[in-house]
Design goal:
- The structure is a single chain.
- This protein has 2 helices and 6 strands.
- The chain is of the alpha/beta class.
- Strands 2-1-3-4 form a 4-stranded mixed β-sheet, covered by helices on one side. Strands 5-6 form a two-stranded antiparallel sheet.
- The longest helix is centred in the last third of the chain and has 16 residues.
Length: about 110
């Protein structure tokens, strides 16, 4: 059920055409979950600043069923991935983790609990 969302002020044409597929495979591999469970959303062209500057920046969110024990490890990997794929420096975006309980997520009308 992981959902990976990237909000960025980069215009749509600056987001690589295969970014969604690369991000989906990356998230599945990083979290050790089937890619069939992964959702990726990219929101380019956002009106946003970071640190008072409109230079390329982003806000990255990862929603996942977890206790958060590996968030530090995931933060390093996500930062490197986003920087390498979107050319946004790591100090120009935050990564926000939302750790969900199994009973708070459903697929096909059934929770994961």
């Amino acid at each position: 059920m992981p959902t990976f969302a990237v909000y960025t002020n980069l215009p749509n044409d600056k987001v690589p055409g295969d970014f969604l597929q690369q991000a989906s495979a990356f998230v599945a591999n990083q979290l050790g979950k089937p890619e069939s469970y992964v959702t990726v959303r990219v929101h380019p062209g956002q009106m946003m600043t970071h640190g008072g500057s409109s230079d390329p920046c982003a806000s990255v969110e990862l929603y996942n069923i977890t206790d958060g024990a590996k968030n530090k490890e995931h933060a390093v990997a996500i930062a490197k991935f986003v920087e390498s794929k979107l050319s946004i420096p790591q100090n120009r975006f935050y990564v926000t983790f939302t750790n969900l309980r199994r009973e708070d997520v459903a697929l096909d009308g059934k929770t994961f609990a």
